[in-house]
Amino acid sequence: MTMTASILLGTDALQQVTCIACGETVAREDAREYDKYGDRWSREGKEFEYLCKPCHQDCCHQNRDGLEETLMAANAGRTDRKTFLRQYCELTADNTNSS
Ligand SMILES: [Zn+2]
Fold it and tell me: Do 68 and 38 fall within a single domain?
């Protein structure tokens, strides 16, 4: 049982995946899962996307370039919180899609 599982895992680790940020092909075991729905725990019927390690690090330590512009565009301080959050989410989602 344990042996079978490790063989299966070994096979999976040899798969190659493509980083969605830079297009680099990396070994599955070197990649990080990226779930565009932000919910890694409900895995049913989902296809995960992958980030290579450098891009994953960028993702987790996002620089603040453009943040002020995004906040302005989302009417920060000039609209109610709910509207601002919705607009902010839409703006940042657009940024993600275009890269
Ligand atoms: Zn990458």
Answer: no
Residues 33 and 1 placed together within one structural domain of the fold: yes
Percentage with pLDDT > 70 across the chain? 66
Ligand 1: distance of its center to the CA of 90 in Å?
Answer: 23
87: containing domain: 64-99
Clarify whether residues 52 and 88 are in a common domain: no
Q: What does the DSSP assignment read for 5-62?
A: HHHHHHHHHT-EEEBTTT--EEEGGGSEEE-TTS-TT--TT---EEE-HHHHHHHHT-
Rounded distance from Cα 31 to ligand 1 centre (Å): 9
- What mean pLDDT comes out for the span 79-96? 78
Ligand 1 mean position, distance from CA 24 (Å): 6
